Amino acid sequence: MNQRGSASITLLGVIVVAMVLAVGIAGVGTWLRARTEANAAADAAALAAAPVTFLPFGAKGTPAEEAARFAAINGTRLVWCVCPPNPTWEPRTVEVEVEKQVPIWPFGNFAVRGRGRAEFVPELLLEGMAGE
Q1: Domain count, the chain
Q2: Structure confidence by residue, pLDDT tens digits, 16-39
Q3: Cα–Cα–Cα angle for 24, 28, 30, nearest 5°?
Q4: What distance in Å separates the CA atoms of residue 98 and residue 8, rounded to the nearest whole number?
Q5: What kind and span of H or E run contains 43?
Q6: Bridge partners for 111 per DSSP
Q7: Distance of alpha carbon 55 from alpha carbon 129, whole angstroms
Q8: For residue 62, what are the contacts with CB-CB under 8 A and spacing of at least 6?
Q9: CA distances from 126 to 86, 94, 121 (A)
Q10: How confident is the model at residue 7 (pLDDT cuts 50, 70, 90)?
Q11: What's the Cα-to-Cα distance from 112 to each of 10, 47, 93, 95, rounded to whole Å?
Q12: Helix axes 3-52, 63-73, angle to 10 degrees
């Protein structure tokens, strides 16, 4: 083999390594974007469910159903929700976890989960009414 042939093989090896790195970096980027979207969807679901633990406020179902609805609107699926109805005036925290299926070529589909929390303080409703 001459020098010209070994240079071609070396160049081919460098190109293959660069392509593998590019696919890996793209996969990591896709996963990071999906994780950010899942966390945002979980926050939205928690924020939607939190006031419904106190009163329906126009919601058509339970706090968990409201969380599931907002999770679906944001392209995720509700995995669990700690959001029991609570008619007391005590502050409460709602926690949810959602899951998003994300295809990462050439590795297949991955489940990416996100968590969100929201605090609801019913007494603040009275402060809003007092200012009117």
Answers
A1: 1
A2: 999 999 999 999 999 999 999 999
A3: 115
A4: 49
A5: helix 3-52
A6: 101
A7: 16
A8: 52, 85
A9: 17, 21, 10
A10: confident
A11: 38, 20, 23, 17
A12: 150
3 state DSSP class of 13: helix
> Which structural domain, as residue segments, surrounds residue 27?
3-130
Which two tokens mark 45? 């679901």
| Statement: residue 131 has pLDDT above 70 | no
Model confidence, pTM:
0.85
> Which pair of tokens denotes residue 132?
């009117």
Reported as a pLDDT band with limits 50, 70 and 90, residue 2 is low
Identify the H or E element spanning 103.
strand 92-104
Q: Could you tell me if 84 and 94 are in contact, meaning their C-beta atoms sit under 8 angstroms apart?
A: no
Rounded to an integer, what distance in angstroms lies between the CA atom of residue 112 and that of residue 97?
10
74: DSSP letter: T
Instruction: Round to whole Å and give the CA distance between 35 and 14.
Output: 31
4 burial level (CB within 10 Å; 0-12, 13-18, 19+): exposed
Q: Which two tokens stand for residue 56?
A: 């329906």
Q: Which two tokens stand for residue 107?
A: 């590795």
Question: Helix, strand, or coil here: 102?
Answer: strand
